[in-house]
Amino acid sequence: MTNKEIMELTERVIIPSYKRYPVAIVRGKGHTVWDADGNEYLDFASAFGTSNVGHCHPRVVEAIAHQAEKLLHVCNLYHIEEQARLAEMLVERSFAEQAFFCNSGAEANEAAIKLARKASHDRFGPGRHTIICTEGAFHGRTMATLSATGMDALKEGFAPLLGGFAFAPFNDVGSVEAAIDGTTCAVMVEPIQGVGGVIMPGVDYLRDLKALCEARDLLLIFDEIQTGIGRTGHLFAYEAFGAPPHIMTISKSLGGGLPIGAMLTTSDLAEHLGPGTHASTFGGNSLACTAAIAVLEIIEADQLLLNCRKVGAYFEEALQSLQESHTAVKEIRGLGLMQAVELDRETHPFVMKALERGVIIDSAAKTAFRLLPPLTIGEAEVDRLCRLLDELLTEAEA
Q1: What ranges do the domains of the chain cover?
Q2: 186: left (phi > 0), else alpha (psi -120 to 50), else beta?
Q3: 66, 184, 179, 78: which is closest to 124 by C-alpha?
Q4: Taking the C-alpha atoms of 169, 173, 177 and 183 in order, what is their torsion angle to the nearest 10 degrees?
Q5: CATH number of 59-301
Q6: pTM exceeds cut of 0.85
Q7: What number of helices (H) and strands (E) belong to the chain?
Q8: Whether the Cβ atoms of residue 205 and residue 238 lie closer than 8 Å to each other
Q9: Is it the case that residue 365 has pLDDT exceeding 90?
Q10: Residue 301 burial by Cβ neighbours in a 10 Å radius (0-12, 13-18, 19+)
Q11: For residues 34 and 200, what is the distance between their CA atoms, to the nearest angstrom?
Q12: Half-sphere exposure for 207 (CA within 13 Å, toward CB)
């Protein structure tokens, strides 16, 4: 089928809950994808940061194919070797001691919300259930995670939302402290706000937040759906800020393109989710866990965290040079290969023009690009992107 044929079919049979770009991607390899008409694109979005090891990495593809011949799925009433192996790898590389697997970031955040409330109920009794979230945060599209999201525009038309959530400005520990009352059980934040436009925390913000939670006997939840699995140059972003949480959620790039999410926590908290308290039919199935194991092995074997830090520093410097050359660029933000360019105007026209010229970038916020290339990217690809951005900015300013 051609791009046009696929788009026409999509418009006829798919619910229009996405505003799609006029391209049908049918193939990918590394940091390159192709559409149905054979056009080639350099991918600096990675499907919202999902393809950290690149599209169709041969070791991920091989692992999936091998597992598919043995077992795709069995329910969680049985022991699943690949699930246990993946959990072991994650806890060995993080603060956590146990894991719960699901299918998406929203599901992982749902699990974290339930754990925080259940643990508080078991320890302190009913009434201590409020979770303080931050303005500008994005935690998902389910009713609970939408209720926890700090973006009013996304909530319009879905009332009544779930109660038990309060909000404080991001990067303001004092405001979080002021919001704490007798109903508070936890604080939930993204270490770096992704959908909000790659909003960075202050140097001490996450550490001070952890100290506040410890002092007030509250649980600290980090949503690392976008920042986790190497995006910042660390396997998990909390490592960069020296602030391990009590509960952490991951998803997106964990499965190399297959749907999988996880909630990680300590053993003393995990015991509050006993049999019958929470479940996910497809969560942690053999196929998805096999892909995730391959992703973690690739990140280590190919030293992608080192590449992320090295190329990320080069990337940030190149973007700052753009800022010096163009008055339209207001700010450069980011860490590792999670970067944003804040403009004095809307970014959507730039995204469309870049697509026409063979480069995929993402408009996270109304006036900010969000740049999330695969962790395999090199300096040559960064140079190509920055040359294009220079051209587009020059044309716009003219």
Answers
A1: 1-44, 59-301
A2: beta
A3: 184
A4: 60
A5: 3.40.640.10
A6: yes
A7: 15, 15
A8: no
A9: no
A10: exposed
A11: 33
A12: 7
